[in-house]
Amino acid sequence: MVFGITGNTSKGLIWEPIARLVRYLKETDRYYRIHDDIARGLVERDLIEVDDANVAGAAPLASACTVVLSFGGDGTLLNTAHEIGNRETPVLGVNLGRLGFLASLEEGDLEPAIHNLEAGNYKVEKRMVLEAHCDGLELPFQWALNEFVIQRPGDRSLLAIDVKVDDTRLNTYWSDGLIMATPTGSTAYNLAAGGPIVVPTSQTIIMTPLAAHTLTVRPVVLPGGVTIEASVLDGEPFVFMSDGRSTMIEDGRVHLSIRRAKHTVNLIQMPEHHFFRTLRTKLMWGARKG
């Protein structure tokens, strides 16, 4: 088994845990590869010597490794997933901040996790991914693990977003925007906007309007196999977002097509992990006051 190591270089908390892990892997004669940015940071901080043969860029890292350990939080794991792309290398998120929905392993549990991985004592959750296409325009990002968002620019009034599902008109959303989320993304922007929580291994697409002008408009949960066609009426400019990354579409006279992608993001979960336990802890369900 070859362990890939990556993380969020802007987080100071990652360096010591990664250095300890690399020492452990070295001392126990295990195979590993380190993302080149991480290797550079370890050397610059004089934490550990790194052999060039064990250093790789994002794409070679994903191809050469059996699993990738992503150090940081949920945002870091999202970035790691995008770097891996459609290679589907399993990812284990190591949480170094607040409890996350994606990065579930605590730093103190790393060594037992290595043993569990080698023993096959874990499960891989195949998380649904969305892909987006735009007629006449190449989008800078074409898939999302959490969500796609059509959103009004900060200096504009609300948008009128016309939506069809499998060629059948659903609604025209007069709102600040529209979220199209995966089950994994149901606990992200979708949740903050009042959308439903969906078990992350489900195959559904959640559409949640942002500050809808019509009070009766509510989130809709669609089957995962549908195609959503969305267009902004009157060609108004809008912001298009994918997992927090954004681009401005100046000419809104375009049609977006959003559907389930062919590939998945494969997240590793340790035996003791359960989504419901994370929900109770993260959202403080059942917590008593005082």
3D structure, described in words:
This protein is α+β, with helices and mostly antiparallel strands and 290 residues long. The protein folds into two domains: 2-127 and 264-282, Rossmann fold; 130-260, Tumour Suppressor Smad4. The chain is built from seven helices and 20 strands. The strands form four sheets. It has a six-stranded parallel beta sheet with strand order 3-2-1-4-5-6, with helices on both faces. The protein has a six-stranded antiparallel beta sheet with strand order 9-8-19-16-11-12, with no helix packed on it. It is globular and about 65 Å long. The protein starts with a strand and ends in an 8-residue tail after the last helix. 37% of the residues are buried.
Short account of what is shown:
With 290 residues, the protein is an alpha+beta fold. The protein contains 7 helices and 20 strands.
The 3D shape can be described as: globular
For the largest beta sheet, what order do the strands appear in spatially? Answer: 3-2-1-4-5-6
Please identify, by name, the CATH architecture of the largest domain: 3-Layer(aba) Sandwich
Quantity of strands, as a count: 20
The first-level CATH class of the largest domain is given as Alpha Beta
Under CATH, the homologous superfamily of the largest domain reads Probable inorganic polyphosphate/atp-NAD kinase, domain 1
Low-confidence stretches: none
Report how far apart the termini are.
48 Å
Rg on CA atoms, Å: 21 Å
